[in-house]
Amino acid sequence: MWRFAQVLALLISITGCNGSPLKHFADHAVVLNHTKQTKDCYDYIIVGGGTSGLVVANRLTENPHTTVLVIERGYIDGQDNGTTVPGLSVPNKYLNKDTSVPQPGLNNRTAPLYTGDVVGGGTVVNGMFFARGARADYDAWEQLGNPGWGWDGLLPYFKKSETFTPPIEGIQEMFPGIISTDLEPHGINGPVGSSFSNYQYPVIKNFFAGWKSIGVAINSQPNDGEATGAFYSTISAYAKDQSRSHASNAYYRPIANVRKNLHLVTGHLVTKINFDQELRAVSVDFVSRTTNETSTVGAGREIIMAAGAARTPQILQLSGIGPQPLLSSLGIETIVDLPGVGSNFQDQPTLYMQFSYSNYTFPTPDWVLSNASWAAEQLAIYYKNRTGPMTIPYLGGSTVAFLPLQNITSQYRSLVKSMSSTNLSSLLLSTDSTSGYAAQIKILQAVYSSSHAAVAEIAWEGGDTIPLAMIRPYSRGAIYINTTDPLAAPVVNFNTFSHPMDIAVAIASVKKIRGWASSPPMQALGTVETFPGRNVSTDTQIEEAIRDAATSSWQHPSSTTAMMKREWGGVVDAELRVYGTKGLRIVDAGIFPMVVAGHSSSSVYAVAEKAADIIKAGWQEIMRDHIQHK
Ligand SMILES: Cc1cc2nc3c(=O)[nH]c(=O)nc-3n(C[C@H](O)[C@H](O)[C@H](O)COP(=O)(O)OP(=O)(O)OC[C@H]3O[C@@H](n4cnc5c(N)ncnc54)[C@H](O)[C@@H]3O)c2cc1C
Ligand SMILES: *[C@@H]1O[C@H](CO)[C@@H](O)[C@H](O)[C@H]1NC(C)=O
Ligand SMILES: *[C@@H]1O[C@H](CO)[C@@H](O)[C@H](O)[C@H]1NC(C)=O
Ligand SMILES: *[C@@H]1O[C@H](CO)[C@@H](O)[C@H](O)[C@H]1NC(C)=O
Ligand SMILES: *[C@@H]1O[C@H](CO)[C@@H](O)[C@H](O)[C@H]1NC(C)=O
Ligand SMILES: *[C@@H]1O[C@H](CO)[C@@H](O)[C@H](O)[C@H]1NC(C)=O
Ligand SMILES: *[C@@H]1O[C@H](CO)[C@@H](O)[C@H](O)[C@H]1NC(C)=O
Ligand SMILES: *[C@@H]1O[C@H](CO)[C@@H](O)[C@H](O)[C@H]1NC(C)=O
Ligand SMILES: *[C@@H]1O[C@H](CO)[C@@H](O)[C@H](O)[C@H]1NC(C)=O
Ligand SMILES: *[C@@H]1O[C@H](CO)[C@@H](O)[C@H](O)[C@H]1NC(C)=O
Ligand SMILES: *[C@@H]1O[C@H](CO)[C@@H](O)[C@H](O)[C@H]1NC(C)=O
Ligand SMILES: *[C@@H]1O[C@H](CO)[C@@H](O)[C@H](O)[C@H]1NC(C)=O
């Protein structure tokens, strides 16, 4: 029989928290403004209180005996109207902006990379588009050597994270047959609201009719693994009050004043992970954003990286986990030579086309920007009634066409074939693994030939701007530090359009969009392309316009710490453990081996839910082993 004291001694010996005396610390998950309130040691430290970090923090602290500290660079959002009303723009103070190095594929222009800088991360500031990727996206992850990470393995976690609510009757009547109300593919009891705006601009009918008239299928159920065709997407909002649902109000606020085993430090940046002789991650250094005061806190069991695809590789590199030549050049001692840290970077290049409409008499979404009195009226209606255009995400909307290559160009077979001779090693940045890249390209070649996987996304909320995103890129970039200053941004290199497939898809898609804009339903609105403009007509002219105007990011950075074989440039194994270390995992969008062809937030939630189960199971296994060996 185990005595309590023995169990406690065992726990302490395993956890390494060493029973050090506790400082005076807060008794529940309040925001700690200074580090004097923290304990010296927690079972788990989560680096980054963004989307993935808060999911894992919530799930791990379901056990009241498990202590968790989350360290987040940003602050708690003030529940400002800008983060709750879908139709308002988000305050800049919650956004971090990095600027890339000049991109040769964009005629040497730079491109911004926006991420969340707030508790809740990207989901507090994002466009609220909330659809899953295609079955093929996740099955590709599994094919890259990660059992359990295919569509079937992730589906329970997509469901676990959401509460889905079908659209109100008015919307269903307006778009008959366009939106499935089937609950089966969805979760109905999870923390994140997944629903639909209860208002829509009437011209969205022309959007669907236009695509249909040129042979694009209308898909009423894009969330069951078939994310193709023209569809009306779910958004991350609570159906009841039509307000934004994000990681902070879904996973943090409900437990903030309840669980005494969760602490959150805001306004602090983690600068370094410290390792013991056995390469176990044992503590983190972090610095106050306001006072520059530095602190160290210990982790008894694990340190969990959740600083996002742009910052997790930076922190690892600063800590000596990364490509040895890079680390040596900066005088950083290499703890583990892991060339993949920061490489395999993916985002989705985007071109914003412009149109005008001479026979468009309804209020348009652009009125929110251009007609202040109208916008004020709509806002008042929203506050009073939770209806109207302000229920539609700012510059967002939710009507899209997700096109497989064969639905963009009839030349798709020859286009895919022509890419098989591309010299991949000539395209990669310094430390990328050619074999890992080749394995991914082999999968992409098959996926680009499939009718069940989209390669381009065209969105329209009814206004002048029509974004075209190349959502399944062949190009790979990198995020590397160039200084040991942890407060400086890392060097962001998207390497946009480095692989010829991506620009080829962009050119073909511009022509496809013209087909849609010229269709009778869109012509009934008097649609005229104003940018690039119809005089930009040859492939060479279109290519030049894209290189002159496109940007590198669709705000879905991923894959910089890929879950893949180590010899392929992977950084974590299928249990999200960082190769060569102990007690260190990554749970953010950096682990996606390939970007999800679509928007990332729903996948980040699902991945983090699965990660939490893996972490819990890992600990139970350690406990079992120890008890058996006693
Ligand atoms: C402007 C914008 C629009 C988007 N639109 C959509 C959309 O419409 N639909 C969709 O599905 N997805 C969208 N996304 C993407 C989606 O929100 C992200 O993929 C997702 O939130 C990423 O989750 P994450 O956990 O990987 O990282 P994040 O949520 O970014 O979390 C990382 C956290 O780590 C913190 N951090 C960084 N460095 C440190 C450090 N050194 N120490 C401590 N903390 C640190 C950050 O402040 C951040 O809170 C958008 C993103 C942005 C930025
Ligand atoms: C942290 O600061 C905020 C804002 O000043 C305050 O509301 C909160 O009570 C403080 N928390 C603690 C634990 O001191
Ligand atoms: C913010 O929202 C509330 C309702 O939730 C409303 O009463 C208030 O007027 C709004 N503030 C501004 C500045 O619009
Ligand atoms: C981009 O910059 C590189 C290096 O400075 C230069 O060789 C190349 O000609 C430039 N390309 C364009 C299109 O200006
Ligand atoms: C793509 O084209 C094929 C063949 O014409 C058609 O069967 C399919 O429905 C189309 N898919 C989409 C998403 O439009
Ligand atoms: C913190 O350090 C930065 C430089 O790294 C400096 O500009 C700033 O003044 C410092 N702030 C405080 C409060 O010391
Ligand atoms: C702006 O909106 C008001 C309604 O608030 C409307 O009466 C007016 O015609 C609009 N102005 C323009 C230029 O569209
Ligand atoms: C308020 O909402 C109800 C339904 O919830 C709707 O019928 C009504 O038109 C709305 N009022 C306004 C001013 O939009
Ligand atoms: C491919 O590119 C690499 C690096 O640029 C080069 O060394 C190699 O010779 C090229 N291979 C072929 C077959 O052209
Ligand atoms: C690091 O790269 C950035 C560009 O991303 C540049 O502005 C900065 O000067 C570089 N810093 C050092 C120390 O080289
Ligand atoms: C302009 O729109 C109206 C109302 O939708 C429609 O009846 C008319 O046919 C359109 N005009 C043209 C030239 O398409
Ligand atoms: C197309 O027309 C626009 C505006 O008249 C002009 O700026 C642009 O240079 C033209 N482009 C081409 C390729 O002719």
From TrEMBL:
Signal peptide: 1-19
Pfam families hit by this protein: GMC_oxred_C, GMC_oxred_N
The organism's place on the tree of life at top rank: Eukaryota
SUPFAM superfamilies cross-referenced by the UniProt entry: FAD-linked reductases, C-terminal domain, FAD/NAD(P)-binding domain
Residue ranges constituting the Glucose-methanol-choline oxidoreductase N-terminal domain according to the UniProt record: 308-322
InterPro entries per the UniProt record, alphabetical: FAD/NAD-bd_sf (IPR036188), GMC_OxRdtase (IPR012132), GMC_OxRdtase_N (IPR000172), GMC_OxRtase_C (IPR007867)
UniProt keywords, alphabetically: Signal
Family membership noted in the UniProt record: Belongs to the GMC oxidoreductase family.
Protein name: Glucose-methanol-choline oxidoreductase N-terminal domain-containing protein
Organism of derivation: Aureobasidium pullulans (Black yeast)
